[in-house]
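Journal club prep, notes for RB
We'll compare a predicted complex against what the paper describes. Inputs for the magnesium ion case:
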Amino acid sequence: LPLPEKSLIARIRRQSKIWPGVAASIGDDCALLKISPGHEALITTDFTLEDVHFRREWHPPESVGHRFLARGLSDIAAMGGKPVAAFLSLALPAKLSQSWVDRFFMGFRKLADRYKVTLAGGDIAQSPQKILADIMVVGSVPRGKAILRSGAHPGDFIYVTGRLGGSAHTLRELIAGAKCKPSTHSRHFFPEPRLVIGQFLRAHNLSTSMIDLSDGLSTDLAHICDESKAGTKIFSSAIPRAFSEKSGKSKKTGEANQVSLALALHGGEDYELLFTTSPRTRVPKQIAGVPITRIGEITRGKGILLVDENNKTSKLKPQGWEHFS
Ligand SMILES: [Mg+2]
């Protein structure tokens, strides 16, 4: 390791803020979390592997730190919860520079502080070559109020936040060898977990089910179908795409539109939310400045039906998000 484990941990501890909700953190045998009366704990874990989820030559260290935490926070958002503490176990190669580690934690901390999440523990070990990480996030939600995947009913409307396919679009460019500027507004490099929206939906009892779009719309919508024991019908013209459709009838525009639709349907790592509501529920057009778009409805059938621009209906197979393949 660039620094001995003990001094590395001391350095991380010095730089990390302890937010309310955490009574004891790094330095004790266990972290001690305060769960407010009448609340339940939410816990999520995610593995992140170098060359599977990120590449050192593509992703600056700040982006890697941000993305590790964003994955966990997005899961808390999908249940309508509030994040409290994060636990990070890292395996780092000995050859990694101290500046990489510092910049990694800077990206991690910036996002953690924005949502008042304490880095309350974890572990550091040496790895032979690659960076490996396990992130765990603990959150809280009022008892019985967490929004599950299983609550959708036939007739419910389906909504998504933001625009889809942006992260996959950037990844596609990176794979093609393009130089992509890792701007802080990029959904790929610095995805913003939709915590404010998740908590808004929960507080106003708006949604019947919810999931975050980490693997791609077709895959994540299939999870809602499975858990709710229902089917869905979605309209391709309604799906908000990260890069706009071009009008015109040329072959090239047609292909570009097909690509933007495919990325919106199957591209992963947008970390937007997909939720369902009763058809009687009034849903704002925007929440926290993010557009909310109705894309279809829950049906009595099985699986996902896609209705195209010409009103033709076909079965949509969930296409798993395979990183970098
Ligand atoms: Mg999730």
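Talking point for the session: The longest helix spans residues 61-78.
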